[in-house]
Specification:
There is one protein chain. This protein has about 300 residues and is α/β, with parallel strands linked by helices. The chain is about 30% helix and about 15% strand. The chain has 2 domains: about 10-80 and about 235-305, HUPs (Rossmann fold, 3-Layer(aba) Sandwich), CATH 3.40.50; about 85-190, Glutamyl-tRNA Synthetase, domain 3, CATH 3.90.800.10. The chain has 9 helices and 12 strands. The chain binds glutamic acid.
């Protein structure tokens, strides 16, 4: 995002579930940020997570976003329609020796990792078992009788970056990571980089559950000769137990609120209040908040909610 130019950002929901209070808040704040400075907001449906994608979830997501009062520019892009592009990019990285076939199972990775992994990581660090082991995918198949995944080679411990919301981040990385799964579908890390670059996205606003992904994505931008966007990771909504808002905290899906007769204005008013942008009890449309939006007003800490909108 160059200086004062209006940003290009995106909402990137996965149709693996419904829109709930937590992701609605991140989307609302992303929308407010972009719309308050006259930027463009794109919509990308991240529907490549095979078994987790639910029939009808995309339609439900779009309906919920509209109901809440959020819009986007242009037509939605679907990752499932771009599989050929991802695989070309992976082939290029393999050909350049920047990635390699890996036949390790998750269990093997866990067993091979000597020390218990640190809590900042979302996966066990890869011990490097398949590095320099196979010439190519066919060789890996022939040697092991398994269908290989593809891992990206990481030769650094960290890629530090400045988060627009959180400030300086050391950007630690837990070793070589998967960019193509054994079903030949792209891993999230690869698809998101390829798509953000292709769509000209220069501002990524998302939940801080994805903080550990960002340094990996920055390495992919470098390897692919692409300009990385700027990132802002916002704290998540958490339940009264301090854990990320989830089903066990009760049904906070927008659908459930709608069916119980709650208005979108009440939900937006609540989300604004817990985001430092409005008084408790407000009844608001997203457009009512355009003047009051400021990143600095958003609390740094995770917001605790019981889901009762009070
Ligand atoms: N599709 C991802 C999710 O729903 C978001 C990816 C991103 O914003 O980079 O968690």
């Amino acid at each position: 995002m160059a200086g004062s130019e209006a940003p290009v950002s995106r909402l990137a929901p996965s149709p693996t579930g419904v829109l709930h209070l937590g992701n609605a808040r991140t989307f609302l704040l992303n929308w407010l940020w972009v719309r308050s400075v006259g930027g463009r907001l794109l919509l990308r449906i991240e529907d490549i997570d095979g078994p987790r994608v639910k029939v009808g979830a995309e339609e439900a997501l779009l309906e919920d976003l509209h109901w809440l009062g959020l819009d986007w520019d242009g037509v939605p892009v679907r990752q499932s329609e771009r599989l050929g592009t991802y695989s070309t990019v992976v082939d290029g990285l393999l050909a350049r020796g920047l990635a390699y076939p890996c036949t390790c199972t998750r269990k093997e990775v866990e067993e091979a990792a000597s020390a218990p992994h640190e809590s900042w990581q979302d996966a066990t660090p890869y011990p490097g078992t398949c590095r320099d082991r196979f010439c190519d995918l066919a060789h890996a198949r022939a040697e092991t009788g398994r269908e290989p995944a593809v891992r990206f080679r990481v030769d650094v411990d960290a890629v530090a970056y400045d988060d627009l919301f959180r400030g300086a981040d050391p950007g630690r990385i837990g070793g070589d990571f998967v960019i193509e799964k054994r079903d030949r579908g792209p891993a999230y890390q690869l698809a998101v980089v390829v798509d953000d670059a292709a769509q000209g996205v220069d501002l990524v606003v998302r939940g801080d559950d994805l903080v550990t992904s960002t340094p990996r994505q920055l390495l992919l931008y470098r390897a692919l000769g692409l300009t990385a966007p700027r990132f802002a990771h916002l704290p998540l909504l958490v339940g009264p137990d301090g854990k990320r808002l989830a089903k066990r905290h009760g049904d906070t899906s927008l659908k459930a609120y709608r069916e119980a007769g709650t208005t979108p204005e009440k939900i937006v008013g609540y989300l604004a209040a817990v985001s430092g942008l409005g008084e408790p009890g407000g009844r608001l449309r997203p457009t009512d908040l355009l003047d009051s939006f400021a990143l600095a007003r958003i609390p740094r800490e995770p917001v605790v909610t019981s889901g009762s909108l009070r």
